[in-house]
Amino acid sequence: MKKLKTGGVPGAQAGITKAREIYHSLKHHHLFATTPDEKPRILQQLVKKSQELAQTVDGVIKQVSARCGRVKQNAKAKLVQMGGVARTLLPQIKQWMATGKVATEKLLHAGLTQARAIPKGKGRVKFGMKWLIHRLTGGYLFGHRVAPRADENRMPAESLKDYRELFGQQTSPKMVVYDRGASLPAAAAQLKQAGVGKVGIPPRGQGAWRGGDKEQKVVKSERGKTEGSIGRLKSRKYGFSHRQERSVETQDAAGQRAIVSANLNTLMRDLGERVTSVGLARA
Question: What backbone phi and psi angles, to 5 degrees, belong to 153?
C-alpha cells in the first residue's frame, strides 16, 4: 500500500489507515483484553474492519492498470494474493466464532496457504501440511507433500508410483500396506491390477479383512512400525513438525532434510550392527 501511495494510486492511503487500525486492535486483543466479553467483542470488530479493508483493497487493485510500472505491478500482485487469502479465511473465522468449531481446511498461515486444519472427528483437529510417507523394510523412509485435499483412497496408488520412481517402472513391491483411510475396495483392486503381490489395508469399523489371521498380523505390525517411524520424524531430534520456514519451498526442503537425517541414522545403525556381527563371527 505504501508503494502504491508513493505512486499516487487513489485509495492507497485509506487502505494504510485501515490496516493500522486493525493492527492496533489486534495488539490490544492479544495484550490487554482480559475479560471473557472483551475478547469476542474486539474479535468481531477485527473481522468487520478486515472486511472493510478487503473492499478497499479491491478498489485499489482496479486503479493499477497493465501500463503501470514493475513496482506497482508487484504491489498489485501481492494485494491480489492477500485478498484471495482474506476471502477464504474470513468466512472460516466467522464460522468458528458462531459455532466454536474449526472449519474444515481452515487456513493456518496467510503466506502458507497449503497449511490447513484437518478435523479428525470427535472434536480432534490436526494442523499443518499433508504428507505421504513410505516406510521400506528396515525402517528407511521416503515421501513428499501432497495436496491438502488429497483423497486417501488414491494414496496407495500414489505410493506405488513413488516406489517405481525410486526402484524402476517395472518393479512392484511384494506387499503394500496402508491405513484404513483407503479401505475402499477399488484402492486395493487397482494395486492388484498393477502387479502388487499382496495388499494390506485394514477395514473401517467392523468391516471384513481381506486376508487371513497371519496376514492380518503382518499388516498390523507394519502399520505400527510405520506410525512409529512417523512419530520418530516428528520428534525434536529431526524436526519434521513445527518448522519455522516461511515458504512452501523451504517447508518442503526441511521435510526432506528430516527424512534424510533419519535415514542416515538408520544406515549407521545397520552398518554398526553389521560390523559387530562380523567381529563376533571372526572371534
Answer: -70, -15
Q: Is residue 35 part of a domain?
A: yes
Residue with cell 472483551: 38
Task: Give the model's pLDDT for residue 274.
Answer: 87
Pair (243, 150) in one structural domain: yes
| Same domain flag for 159 and 50 | no
Triad 248, 235, 147: Cα angle to 5°: 30
Distances from the Cα of 166 to the Cα of 141, 230, 231, 253, angstroms: 12, 20, 23, 18
One-letter amino acid of 249: E
Conformational region of residue 65, where left means phi above 0, alpha means psi within -120 to 50, and beta covers everything else = beta
The domain of 89 spans 2-109
**pLDDT value of position 1:** 93
Phi and psi at 205, nearest 5°, equal 60, -130
> How many independent structural domains does the chain possess?
2
The C-alpha atoms of residue 180 and residue 279 are separated, in whole angstroms, by: 44
Residues of the chain with pLDDT under 70: 121, 283
Residue 152 pLDDT: 87
**Are 141 and 260 members of one domain?**
yes
pTM above 0.90, yes or no: no
Reported as a single tens digit per residue, the pLDDT across 219-230 is 999 999 999 999
pLDDT of residue 283: 65
In a domain, 12, yes or no: yes
